[in-house]
Amino acid sequence: MKLSILIPIFNVENYIANCLDSVINQDIPSNEYEIIIIDDGSTDNSKAIAAKYAEKHDNIKMFSHMNIGLYATRNKLLELAKGEYIYNLDSDDYIVHYSLGTILNIAIEKGVDIIGFNYKKTKKLDLYKSQKEVKELNYEIETGNNFLSTNHTHYNTVWWYIIRRDFLIAKDIKFDENNPLGDGPFTLRIIHLAEKMLYLPLDIHRYVQVTNSIMNNQSKSHLIKMIENYMEIFERYNLLIDEISRKNKANKMNAVVSQVRHWRDLNIKVLISKLIKSDVSIKEIISIIGRLKKIDSYPIKYYIGIRFNSPMQKLITYVYNRRTLLLIIIPLIRMYNKLALFKEKG
Q: 191: how many CB neighbours lie within 10 A of its CB?
């Protein structure tokens, strides 16, 4: 078995069929790859739709359990996988048709731990063709640390790369469970540990913009939960920073450590932006900033860099890093947003 495609599903009845169609229409013989699905307690028709695909296709394996959370489900999927390589795919996304075989063959031929590829952010469900072909590309194998040091535009999500299963087992890497932001530390850790990595700038993955997805849900109750998730993830980034620093006392990994700090600070910036737009009280925001200071994660010093360095980003960071100024501006921004919404409705 060359490849295991792992798909957790939860209430994605409008997207799961398109996702499964995309992984069925691939340039790999069906006996050489498996598609493993676990339904995590869906309350819509997702499970029934996926079950019909499993009945029609021998290489689709369908399981279900009561809701235990996304990353606990991802770990169950990792345990079930038998492929030489593993691909974690979100059930509301999809991939280019007839693309994985080419990528997989390169991964096997080169014996890489990780092979990555590009993506497109879209609301469309029919972008089945890549704009580039492998024959147009020049690519070379590098260490994961070199990739982190020189590549500043990758995402910290699990859907833009395929991983060698034995590599994960040898390094004893699993997802941190019950945190919807768990992709970041997981991705940075495996890249840091990878001895052979290859990146192909092919737009293979389609990141579908779903209004009520984990990252796009804007409800107040959801944000309150996400605040604690963010705080836990900031600490996990800090643990990874300490881990890399301890192992590399000769300062050979300064660029790698800076990248991890950048991703931590990017997430802090996102959290502060969400808090500004929310109904969370100023008192609670002061408390959150205090918690960030205690774990040495505020002010955000590593957000501005190669990836984000425009005058506007620098201005935003300047304001975010000055608590008094930030607290003065928040009520003004909220008032402006309410007036804009009132005018829009009127």
A: 25
Please, is 97 exposed, middle or buried when counting C-beta atoms within 10 Å of its C-beta (0-12, 13-18, 19+)?
Answer: middle
- pLDDT, tens digit, for every residue of 108-143? 999 999 999 999 999 999 999 998 776 667 788 999
From CA 23, how far away is CA 204, in angstroms rounded? Answer: 11
Tens of pLDDT, residue by residue over 259-313, are: 999 999 999 999 999 999 888 999 999 999 999 999 999 999 999 988 889 999 9
pTM for the model stands at 0.91
CA neighbours within 13 Å on the CB side: how many for 189? 20
Cα gap 334→28, rounded to integer Å:
52
Q: How far apart are CA 319 and CA 205, in angstroms?
A: 35
3-state DSSP assignment of residue 299? coil
Residue pair 240/188 in contact by the 8 Å Cβ criterion:
yes
- C-beta separation of 262 from 307 below 8 A: yes
Amino acid identity, position 102: T
